[in-house]
Amino acid sequence: MLMSDIETPIHEAMSADELEARLRAIGEQRYHHRHSFQLMLQNGELNRRQVQAWALNRYYYQSMIPLKDASLIARLDDPALRRAWRTRLVDHDGEVEGEGGIARWLKLTDGLELDREMVVSARRVLPATRFAVEAYLHFVRERSVLEAIASSLTELFSPLVIGQRVSGMLKHYNFVSAETLAYFEPRLTQAPRDAEMALDYVKRHAERPDQQQAVLEALIFKCQVLWTQLDALHHAYVAPGHVPPGAWDGDAQTGTS
Ligand SMILES: O=C(O)c1cc(C(=O)O)c2c(n1)C(=O)C(=O)c1cc(C(=O)O)[nH]c1-2
């Protein structure tokens, strides 16, 4: 499908399957599996400092996902949908301290010898990371429930990129291990389950052309949220290497700043 096909305004309602095909075409063209930072990460072309910067900044995204999901649950009036959606909160926060995706992500930042307090404080994430992640939070809070659910559909594409990332990182970097990358293993089953549920909702509820257009735009927006985070990492830590004032600069292994 051509880019112009994606961007052509919708005047007549599509079938649910046509809508799905358009969504998948957007992912194929715009998801972060195509980003040069992601390719460098999986091809072993980053140094340890650059991988640390990725893990530190990505923690901020992870830590905000439950806030995003909780705000969505608060707006769902269907108990079945709330029940289904709340598994995401448990996946990330766990049932008890030390469990769940956020705790597993901290195993990665610990393994990379980043100071935990510095990571959790998010003091030294890139400004663009912060702005992109906050834009996602605002989008889910402010747009319709249909658009909010559609914006999670990047998860349709995450298992592929996660598989390539994990195998590439294990192959190329001696400073990560299967244990420190343990965050990703459960995502390979959680993400398809979550994405199928969201896709089913979107296919059943986006009937009018304006709703279908809004759904496609929500997915494009979310691809941009992910893309922008990698743009910022590339600009700061690869080339030209302009670390913004106040952002982590590879000096925080001691956690002094
Ligand atoms: O590793 C990745 O490339 C990747 C991508 C995405 C995504 O596509 O948004 C998510 C995740 N991971 C992830 O781990 C995760 O928990 C997650 C939640 C969401 C969401 O929008 O609700 N996306 C993603």
TrEMBL record:
Thiaminase-2/PQQC domain segment(s): 21-231
Entry keywords, A to Z: Oxidoreductase, PQQ biosynthesis
Gene name linked to the record: pqqC
Oxidoreductase keyword on record: yes
The organism's place on the tree of life at top rank: Bacteria
A GO biological-process term: pyrroloquinoline quinone biosynthetic process
Protein name listed in UniProt: Pyrroloquinoline-quinone synthase
Pfam families per the UniProt record, alphabetical: TENA_THI-4
Matches recorded under HAMAP family: PQQ_syn_PqqC
Gene3D superfamilies, sorted: Heme oxygenase-like
EC number(s) per entry: 1.3.3.11
Catalysed reactions, semicolon-separated: 6-(2-amino-2-carboxyethyl)-7,8-dioxo-1,2,3,4,7,8-hexahydroquinoline-2,4-dicarboxylate + 3 O2 = pyrroloquinoline quinone + 2 H2O2 + 2 H2O + H(+)
Taxonomic source organism: Chromohalobacter marismortui
Membrane-crossing segments per the record: none
Pathway named in the protein's UniProt entry: Cofactor biosynthesis; pyrroloquinoline quinone biosynthesis
Protein's job: Ring cyclization and eight-electron oxidation of 3a-(2-amino-2-carboxyethyl)-4,5-dioxo-4,5,6,7,8,9-hexahydroquinoline-7,9-dicarboxylic-acid to PQQ.
Molecular function per GO: pyrroloquinoline-quinone synthase activity
Family: Belongs to the PqqC family.
